[in-house]
Amino acid sequence: MKLRLGLPKGSLQEATFQLFKQAGFELTVRSRSYFPSVNDPELEVVLMRAQEIPRYVHEGVLDAGLSGLDWILENEADVVEVADLVYAKSTPNPIRLVIAVANDSNIKSVSDLNGKRIATELVRVTQKFLRENGVNAYVEYSYGATEVKVPHLVDAIADITETGSSLKANNLRVIATILESTTKLHANKESWNDPWKREKLQNLAVLLQGALRARARVGLKMNVPGDRLDTILAILPAMKQPTISQLVNSDWVAVEVILEERQVRDLIPALKRAGAHDIIEYPLTKVIP
Amino acid sequence: MKLRLGLPKGSLQEATFQLFKQAGFELTVRSRSYFPSVNDPELEVVLMRAQEIPRYVHEGVLDAGLSGLDWILENEADVVEVADLVYAKSTPNPIRLVIAVANDSNIKSVSDLNGKRIATELVRVTQKFLRENGVNAYVEYSYGATEVKVPHLVDAIADITETGSSLKANNLRVIATILESTTKLHANKESWNDPWKREKLQNLAVLLQGALRARARVGLKMNVPGDRLDTILAILPAMKQPTISQLVNSDWVAVEVILEERQVRDLIPALKRAGAHDIIEYPLTKVIP
Amino acid sequence: MKLRLGLPKGSLQEATFQLFKQAGFELTVRSRSYFPSVNDPELEVVLMRAQEIPRYVHEGVLDAGLSGLDWILENEADVVEVADLVYAKSTPNPIRLVIAVANDSNIKSVSDLNGKRIATELVRVTQKFLRENGVNAYVEYSYGATEVKVPHLVDAIADITETGSSLKANNLRVIATILESTTKLHANKESWNDPWKREKLQNLAVLLQGALRARARVGLKMNVPGDRLDTILAILPAMKQPTISQLVNSDWVAVEVILEERQVRDLIPALKRAGAHDIIEYPLTKVIP
Amino acid sequence: MKLRLGLPKGSLQEATFQLFKQAGFELTVRSRSYFPSVNDPELEVVLMRAQEIPRYVHEGVLDAGLSGLDWILENEADVVEVADLVYAKSTPNPIRLVIAVANDSNIKSVSDLNGKRIATELVRVTQKFLRENGVNAYVEYSYGATEVKVPHLVDAIADITETGSSLKANNLRVIATILESTTKLHANKESWNDPWKREKLQNLAVLLQGALRARARVGLKMNVPGDRLDTILAILPAMKQPTISQLVNSDWVAVEVILEERQVRDLIPALKRAGAHDIIEYPLTKVIP
Amino acid sequence: MKLRLGLPKGSLQEATFQLFKQAGFELTVRSRSYFPSVNDPELEVVLMRAQEIPRYVHEGVLDAGLSGLDWILENEADVVEVADLVYAKSTPNPIRLVIAVANDSNIKSVSDLNGKRIATELVRVTQKFLRENGVNAYVEYSYGATEVKVPHLVDAIADITETGSSLKANNLRVIATILESTTKLHANKESWNDPWKREKLQNLAVLLQGALRARARVGLKMNVPGDRLDTILAILPAMKQPTISQLVNSDWVAVEVILEERQVRDLIPALKRAGAHDIIEYPLTKVIP
Amino acid sequence: MKLRLGLPKGSLQEATFQLFKQAGFELTVRSRSYFPSVNDPELEVVLMRAQEIPRYVHEGVLDAGLSGLDWILENEADVVEVADLVYAKSTPNPIRLVIAVANDSNIKSVSDLNGKRIATELVRVTQKFLRENGVNAYVEYSYGATEVKVPHLVDAIADITETGSSLKANNLRVIATILESTTKLHANKESWNDPWKREKLQNLAVLLQGALRARARVGLKMNVPGDRLDTILAILPAMKQPTISQLVNSDWVAVEVILEERQVRDLIPALKRAGAHDIIEYPLTKVIP
Predict the structure, then answer these.
(1) Chain F contacts in chain E segment 132-191 (CB below 8 A)
(2) Coil/strand/helix, residue C204
(3) What confidence tier does B246 reach under pLDDT thresholds 50, 70, 90?
(4) CB C159 within 8 A of CB C70
(5) d(CA C69, CA D268)
(6) Nearest 5°: phi and psi at E177?
(7) Distance from the CA of F6 to the CA of which of A160, B282, C76, F237 falls in 20 to 30 A?
(8) Which residue ranges make up each domain of chain D?
(9) What is the C-alpha separation between B118 and B126, in angstroms, rounded?
(10) CA end-to-end span of chain B, whole Å?
(11) What pLDDT score does F103 carry?
(12) Which residues lie closer than 8 Å to D46 by C-beta, 6 or more apart?
């Protein structure tokens, strides 16, 4: 039995392959092929444009796939969300689908869009949003380079943005956010009802999320004199249960803890001052709570 | 006054810029910009996806543009064809939009497509063709990589092909040709009725076509003894009027002629045998008949 | 005293340097040089074509080298195999030297090769194989691109293949396997009899194999309630002795185990279900059993 | 409050960013920008030519910066050295500023430079050195490619060298060493007197040095039968305090130690012979003693 | 006898080599060398930073060199200008050295610079300009990236600009132009007084300028019926003397003329309308009036 | 009927394709293919290692091919030389096969090679040369990087050199030249006896040599007052017959001549001084005398 999985071709492909490799699945593909081989005989992978994956998952051509919430909605795909996966982005901010106009446009809010022309790659999501806001506008499909179409070709655009820097570079001003989007491991409904496929998907989710969690975390080990242990433990984040083991023939203990990487820059100097010795930090591949 | 011209962004861009440079128009653009500068104050150029240019020409946002006949038809754009331009292709064959199925499919002809699913980037052109052939099929928009969708995702595709080699590499078989397509310089109807814009467009057509014609031609000069002139002229292609000038203080004449490059490989050995001396071939930038 | 070691120049070089770096030996070489510097004063490294290394090891110009079994045999080199090293390949399948013919050739088996012409980079190995099979054929040295020579230039080829995909792409059919080959750390016989050199080579083998073993393995740590320990241990592969340590002031134990990476995808979900907490996976650089 | 930090633009930039990432600070910068963003709201980073950083630190435009001792001296910058950082070099040798002449020059020692012309990027440091040696020579500023100016343009050069290979390739001979230089984290004097900034700088130094220390070290774990422990401990470097923990229900102990990577190649074979089992080596990200 | 010529290393090198190739001098250089070989035994070429060439020409180490007027002035080099060469620029505008401040600075004119700090690569030229304008400011040498130093590090900069786009991208405003600069072939005064060297330099100037002139010009040939000749000649630019030759046995004439390329786009359509046939345009390598 | 032609794959391929394009034959090949398509239905082209082409021409598998004289001799191929083609080299010197030893070797002449070991890619040619010189040495086949084998692996090498710079960089000294080699268009003897194939080959030779001749030549045109014509003609190289035509209604004549490019740098200044006006130089594609 095999699980048929659609993964995004193109700009996300390398990041996706790296995530799967870290999760334990090695994908290899020849340059122009769309059918990678994978070192798990229970998986069959197809590369596709992210835009199309939810449609084919919905229709059952694929058991499951990775794509953004934006494209799941645009395809009106009725699928099961198995896991939320945040990767391959340059900031921790979510990706947003926003409506933007020229800086000097007199369109100030969504209601000003009545009767205007809007270019977007996500026509249906945009139309639905406008309808819900009681706005009647002409929404046209944009094949790309959407952000340069204002103001010469259209009055406004609905476009994906992460940091807003491309919008700023094109002198655009955001007037509304249609939705926030992250990558979803999503499944076909029938496939989800198959027990073998559901367990396979749940295991996949555990491994992928374990890999992502490990990216923002590090392992920390240190040796602590017995009488400094309480001080040290007080410094460590409360919710983390450190692993403490007694050293042989000694009144020192070894303390080991998993931390978020961004805490380390404050903790290491503090631990050192509090009497910890031989602090080492080591990298992690997976973290499962 | 300015003529607003849409040129294709992407894979055709470099070839288009080279053609315009040869025609006398130097376009320069910074890497992420869509608004090249051009050394002709009467032109304003916008880079766009070729798919969208006919739509914006039709609507009058652009006065004119370069795009394929396929996309003019897909956009149902009612525009004026100013010139046919054949460039940036690896063979002299026209580009074709064909319907293809898996080699081992039992779909043999268009009529077998009834009730089938077809993926294509050119949905309307394909639907129109099927309708005209009395076929009722489901045509879905493909965001790319169309040729790998058969047979897993769809039964057939309608895709652009030049040499057929990508179809062959994907084990596909052509069952019908929907249309042949070349690049067209096409104009908005109102712009065409403006005398200044029409003359500007006609001049542009002369220069672009003069540049393309020069690519397949070379200049040939040779010195010929007076008594061999008739023999030499008999060898040269009949329709070409060579330029003959008498040399000073000599009974030799200089013969100069413009030829198609592919004739040269047979003519040069023949001319040499017939008594021509000092044959030189030189490159051309434009040829206007 | 120094050990003189030949390493393969060219396509294997980067992978070899990475393996040595992981094993603890940093090699640096300027772009056109063949004499890398190495951070071990007891080693002297020469880069060479893999084809030539066994010959120079055999002759004692080098104490030892890395090359494939195929080239050791082709050079008829009488050397000591110190270690088998599997690296720098895209699949876990061994590399094979096979005899292949055109798909539509009427050569079906080795005996059909009588009187035929065969191109190969490994002339002697091929001749020996044919002789042992009672076949009399003309074997010619091929400087490269061997797989395109059938059927225009020769009747069959003897060529190296890993996945068979290049053979398939050239419409070739395998009719026999001459040998399977892996990379060997091999030594000159006299050098091997020198105690200092032998120990240096054995240590090198331990480190290189420890590095390779680590590539397919990961470290796994988890915290386990005392009463779940037996369940957890039952899930872990039997032959692996996990390291179990008691946590201070707690009835939990820490379990640590080294596993093959390909087992992890099944074990992690199972361990979690069985009550393990805070499972972390971390990367390894060397594993010595 | 923010600490304003100058980092070197150019050839050192990537290595610097990698070091900071390992230390826990992620810097991202768009291709032509000089103001990277950093995931620490207490830091403000500016990219600059290494030559200029000490000047701006001295003047208080920056609180601190990274630059070589050579440029601190050339700028006559009166700054506080916070930490010595050795990174981004191909060898462990220090970088030296040397005076070099043509191989066949009759300049043999510093005193022979009297009345000669010397090209260098470090004019003041060179002038000071000559003055201290009682030599009167003409020192001119070199914009680059200093090593090819001898002998046609100048008599000698004062240039930075690491391995000496570029000097050798240009047929130059070193006659004196002006100074040895490493990268310094250095601070403005007033900033150093501010308690918040001083602590921030000290923490930064701990993390950067912890990252650098980790690059040359590895973690080693092994299981040891109780009766072999003393033998094993005798093999391990004396100054390192290994972490020893008793295994549950067993008379084995787990021994864990942090070692310099260059010791490993001798220790692993020795430990194995002495009875250690399941030796694993794992990578480290930070080591704080 | 040889002429020793300094050519700019770096960003201008490729353009300079192309210009010399077109002028008839083929320069070849191995990647890290500064001494190209040239196919003229009378030339000896040295590659150098453009900043240093005028200094070495002034001092007689070189007979002549190519560098900008800006660097000739900065070096206070007393040299002979042999030829003005405009090449390797993206626009026909001259390069300018300008003083720029932040857009929102309250420095509005040169006189506002009193007491301010200015960064520049051309310290002496800037100081001289300020002195002549009665301004007393602190001018500091900038090693690069000058345009990002305003406003954090300095109050103003003096920097080279061609299109002004880098200044605009850094939100800078030009308040004064110090000088306009083009590339000069300049000679040492003594070398210029040597008759052989002077003639060599004059010939070099003719060839380099002939090559540059040819870049903006094309050759045009056409056949014209005798009775249309006057009309055609009236269309052609007055100052150009066309070459007219009578065709054999015909009342047509061949007209040939050299034109500036930018005239061609208007002339070709006009000539065609006026009765010219077989118009061809061909490229030129040198044009000497 | 088709002529089957072998062209060199690899480093010479691009230069060969450019030469054929200039000669009028456009070759296109997909990245991994060995069978280019060509716009001449009478040609069938195969790409091969240059080393193997003469063997397959000799055996009649190919009608003709391009390869060096060195490989024709090494293959002991009995073929017809159709044309000598000098292209794709960085200098006008011929390529030479030389015997080289270490600079400090005491091998001074060929006779000192008795009993020595020599590595070379051209074993037979080298053996024949040694035999003819009465020397008995061991010649071994080198798979590449031959020049670094001296002195550690062999006593001498026989290697191809063009400028000698690689030999110099490896501290080698040339003691003998075995042969000089250029690229030959060579034909199978039977193919040459076929009249159609012989004419096709002769035409090909005319076009290829015409293209090569054009690379070193330019066209020069100028206008000359009638009374200066003799002076001008006296300056032009004697053997070249210039084309002189009388200008209409004028006492000026137009002079046109084909020159070697290396003459132009002296002639243009001289012609200008002698009264020529409007001198233009234009590029050539073919020159057939």
Answers:
(1) none
(2) helix
(3) confident
(4) no
(5) 28
(6) -110, 120
(7) B282
(8) 3-92+183-214, 95-181, 217-283
(9) 9
(10) 30
(11) 94
(12) D4, D5, D6, D7, D34, D35, D62, E152
The answer, yes or no, to whether the previous bond of F195 is cis (omega within 30 of 0) is: no
Dist. CA B225–CA B234, nearest whole Å: 15
Contact of F60 with F137, CB cutoff 8 Å: no
Question: What tokens appear for D193 in the block?
Answer: 């007197």
Sheet bearing A3-8, strands edge to edge: A43-48, A3-8, A64-68, A183-187, A80-85
Shortest distance, CA F183 to any CA of chain B (angstroms): 22
Sequence letter at residue C151? P
The distance in angstroms from the start CA to the end CA of chain E is 30
Q: CA C145: distance to chain centroid?
A: 24
Q: Shortest CA distance to C68 belongs to which of C208, C205, C182?
A: C182
CA distance D264 to D282: 12
pTM of the predicted model, to two decimals?
Answer: 0.89
**B30 at interface of A, judged by CB pairs closer than 8 A:** no
- Are the C-beta atoms of F169 and F135 separated by less than 8 Å? no
Q: What is the pLDDT of residues D174-204, one digit of tens each?
A: 999 999 999 999 999 999 999 999 999 999 9
User: Is residue C239 predicted with pLDDT exceeding 60?
Assistant: no
- Residue type for position E66: L
Closest CA to F254 of F283, F219, F224: F224
Q: Is the dihedral of CA A90, A94, A98, A102 positive or negative?
A: negative
Tell me what the mean pLDDT of segment C134-159 comes to. 92
Task: Classify domain A3-92+183-214 at the CATH superfamily level.
Answer: Periplasmic binding protein-like II (3.40.190.10)
CATH of region A217-283:
3.30.70.120
> Contact at 8 Å (CB) between B161 and B167?
yes
ipTM higher than threshold 0.85:
yes
Contact C242, C233 (CB under 8 A): yes
Beta strands in F37-128 (DSSP E): 37-38, 43-48, 64-68, 80-85, 95-102, 117-120
Asked if chain A contacts chain E via 3 or more Cβ pairs within 8 Å, the reply is no
SS3 (DSSP) at B226 = helix
Rounded CA-CA distance D142/D123 in Å is 9
Cα–Cα distances in angstroms (integers) from residue F180 to residues A264, B239, F10, F93, in the given order: 69, 49, 22, 10
Distance from CA of F286 to the nearest CA of C (A): 34
Taking an 8 Å cut-off on Cβ atoms, the answer to whether F223 and E241 are in contact is yes
Instruction: Look at residue C63 and tell me whether its pLDDT is greater than 60.
Output: yes
With beta carbons under 8 A apart, name residues in chain E contacting D52: 142-143
Residue identified by tokens 């076949």 is C135
Angle at Cα F143 formed by Cα F139 and Cα F144, nearest 5°? 105
Contact F24 B264 (CB under 8 A): yes
Q: Which residues of C touch F145 (CB under 8 A)?
A: 9, 34, 47-49
Are D95-181 and D217-283 the same fold in CATH?
no
Tell me the C-alpha distance between D138 and D148, whole Å: 18
Q: Tell if the CB–CB gap between D207 and A246 is shorter than 8 Å.
A: no
What digits encode the pLDDT tens for the residues C74-116? 999 999 999 999 886 666 667 899 999 999 999 999 999 999 9
Beta-bridged to residue D66, according to DSSP, are D185
* B209-234 average pLDDT score: 94
CATH code: domain C95-181 is: 3.40.190.10
CA distance D160 to D146: 10
More confident residue, E246 or B128: B128
CA B137/CA B131 separation, integer angstroms: 9
The reply to whether omega before C8 is within 30° of 0 (cis) is no
Q: Reply yes or no on whether the pLDDT at F12 is more than 90.
A: no
User: Strands B3-8 and B43-48, how do they pair?
Assistant: parallel
Q: Residue holding tokens 């004026």?
A: B80
A233 CB contacts (<8 Å, ≥6 apart)? Answer: A242, A255
